[in-house]
């Protein structure tokens, strides 16, 4: 029996690249790109929630257990115009645009909601950047992708 890396080198030595072909994206499962791809705009274009929960200011959770006043809701695709102040939170859906003043999201499963739905309790500190995506952290326009970076199919 030969070592795995030696077997892989042996197999790869007998392989050659196929000529590129044009495919629709929905036909490209299992394929790799043959030329560089460059994003034309940032994705996402705005800071948005990675899940359903409550957008808030991380500094408000510094004491670990905190009760915050719910000042509204933000649905996916909605521009709210809300600005969070000290002690406030807003219910937010996955993909929802983070309101001004918010720097994190607490998952829905991690809050206790009062019977009237106007106050939530969070029993742990939530760190800055928790559960949301920003153009600065995840933007596809920040770089181009080569054929080594992009494949359609199952992960290794």
What does it look like?
- With 156 residues, the protein is mainly beta.
- It has 2 helices and 10 strands, in the order αβββββββββαβ.
- A 6-stranded mixed sheet has the order 6-3-5-4-8-7, with no helix packed on it.
- The longest helix is centred in the first third of the chain and has 10 residues, at 4-13.
Individual helix count = 2
Return the CATH class of the domain at 48-137.
Answer: Mainly Beta
Q: In this structure, how is the largest beta sheet organized?
A: 6 strands, mixed
Mean pLDDT: 83
Please give the order of strands in the largest beta sheet. Answer: 6-3-5-4-8-7
- Assembly category: single chain
What is the overall shape?
elongated
| C-alpha-based Rg, rounded | 23 Å
What's the CATH architecture name of the domain at 48-137?
A: Beta Complex
Strand content: 15-25%
CATH third-level topology of the domain at 48-137 = Molybdopterin biosynthesis moeA protein, domain 3
- Provide the helix percentage: under 10%
Tally of DSSP β-strands = 10
Q: State the end-to-end CA separation.
A: 24 Å
List keywords for this structure.
mainly beta; 156 residues; 2 helices; Molybdopterin biosynthesis moeA protein, domain 3; disordered C terminus; six-stranded mixed sheet; two-stranded antiparallel ribbon
